[in-house]
């Protein structure tokens, strides 16, 4: 469990001020992404289930209250409020695995103001990172259709929780497995792994290392062949295969982790095929991103799968999203921020999505939730009074939704073409509400 004190101090400061002034009317906050990073054309929503679990379980222990008290920063009314705190608000959201775009609320919180404010930091933390990684993973899935993709990035993730969330988010996007064992325990994600170069180096003979490992791990044997000489390693696999086969052990694949992966894969494929091992697959790892995947696809590289590490778990080319959790309504009055470059649309919103005759996404409309537009509505109620409205969907169900939505992307977005903008129209009703919010702010 993550401590509820994993938050920004200013959340507690504001809640203290709200309580002192009696500001506890109903507030509406929405989490959304302002704009896409360069080279991104879409987002894949993720993190909702983690956010709902956080809201369901958020509570302050006696030790938490004692620590806050001894800081001398807070009054008894805040400490008493936190002692009894349970989330009792409403949540509406775009389901996980749904393709979405900037300005569209991924999550809406409706609750008394102190409650809705208090949860801001952790909600952003969960929704931002999961959506960031799912969106990155989705690009890789589109770049390598039909290939095995596995999350190898735990060791380079920015913390243990980030490693877990990366495994889950990438699996939602269409990855087939993760090397993270705890992800298998917690989420039921298939766990995959081979061996490290150190295992080979421990042995004085590479072929003996292969044999020892195969006999210890006879199911789905994958051998790492690039410790010394990649092609020589492949030839040793060919020589070893009949001996293992006689004992009922089949080599499933080989992995290459260095050098010119395409060139090595072609040479290794020929060695394996000439040696009668046409069914042995080739996996590669090391420096894999969507550009590499697209290049390998274009060159028809004989590679069956990819282990992807830091480029996934740290989303190196775009390590963050410009996102926000902003007040949209308070005490029944629409509110908006007008800061330069960060202006918001007020009110409780809905997104309507239209499709063309081929079933591809054709455009979205963003408006107030009481407006009416043709198309599929994306934001749905998921929690009322602090309780889920339905059991959490399975990871397979979320994964199926992601596959469906990625298949329905316009073809330029599926090809990861740069400079392609998906149309999201702001409806007149929302513009009108923004004018109303501005007049209220001006006191008119």
Question: What would a concise description of this structure say?
Answer:
This protein is of the alpha/beta class and 444 residues long. The protein is 41% helix and 20% strand. It contains 17 helices and 19 strands.
Please tell me how large the radius of gyration is: 26 Å
Shape: elongated
CATH superfamily caption of the largest domain: nicotinate phosphoribosyltransferase
How many domains? The number is 2
* Share in helix: 40-55%
Alpha-beta content class: alpha/beta
Tally of helical segments: 17
At CATH level 3, the topology of the largest domain is nicotinate phosphoribosyltransferase
Architecture of the largest domain, according to CATH? Alpha-Beta Barrel
- Give a short account of the largest sheet: 7 strands, antiparallel
Proportion of beta-strand residues? 15-25%
Residue-averaged pLDDT, rounded? 97
CATH class of the largest domain: Alpha Beta
GO molecular function: glycosyltransferase activity; nicotinate phosphoribosyltransferase activity
Protein name: Nicotinate phosphoribosyltransferase
Enzyme class: ligase
Pfam families: NAPRTase (PF04095), NAPRTase_C (PF17956), NAPRTase_N (PF17767)
Would you mind describing this structure in some detail?
This protein has helices at 9-21, 48-57, 62-71, 76-83, 113-118, 120-143, 160-173, 181-187, 197-202, 206-216, 230-246, 261-274, 290-298, 310-313, 395-407, 411-414, 428-441, and strands at 26-35, 43-44, 90-93, 99-100, 107-112, 148-151, 177-178, 221-224, 251-256, 281-285, 305-308, 322-330, 333-334, 349-355, 361-368, 376-377, 380-384, 387-388, 424-426. Strand 9 (251-256), helix 12 and strand 10 form a beta-alpha-beta unit. It folds into 2 domains: 9-134 and 318-441, nicotinate phosphoribosyltransferase, CATH 3.20.140.10; 143-313, TIM Barrel (Alpha-Beta Barrel). The protein starts with 8 loop residues before the first helix and ends with a helix. The model has no long low-confidence stretch (mean pLDDT 97). The longest helix has 24 residues, at 120-143. By secondary structure, the chain is of the alpha/beta class.
